[in-house]
Amino acid sequence: MAIGIATGPFMQIVPRNCAVCVCPPDAACTRSENANFTGVTSQEAPRPRDGIPARRTLAAVVTLVVGTPVFLWSAIGQLSDEGGTDHLIKVPAINRVLELAIALAALVATVIASNVLRGTGRPWFIEAGWWRVVIRLLAAGAYVAIAGRIITSAVGGANIGGAILLYFVAPLLLPYLLWSSVRQARKLKGAQTSGGGDGRS
Fold it and tell me: What pTM was computed for the model?
């Protein structure tokens, strides 16, 4: 015996012994022969293909990676010494109120992005292990924001700390983090393609 179930503008005929029918728009209804019909129908959830996340998830990752250093930079503010006139690198001054507004906007954006990644993006971001790539990019962005404030601060004399961060730490740390991100992404993509684990390192 079959039961008709309305799904959108169409009526689908569901076998009585079908426990859960998963009916993608372009595929026939699949069924479980060994259980009684429960009257429940559902559509198969979209899954990432070849390690590529959904657009919403990808947008959340970009927002998180970009928004985090923007928030840190704006929230930290100027670190210049009072009366300091010497700059290792000089950047245009921004009104402090505007900086705080930018920090607040970046914070809201990163919180929303984090919720997306913990929600609809969880299968790709957490369960598939891609958080390992994102956290490396976040570390690089955080370094750029924090070190950037030190490097661009006005001091009285030589900015020794800024010079160390710019000329010694950055050339080693940033390339390593970017290389590590690419390497981890390739491992995860390979693991998902072969179906063998989550590419942990």
Answer: 0.69
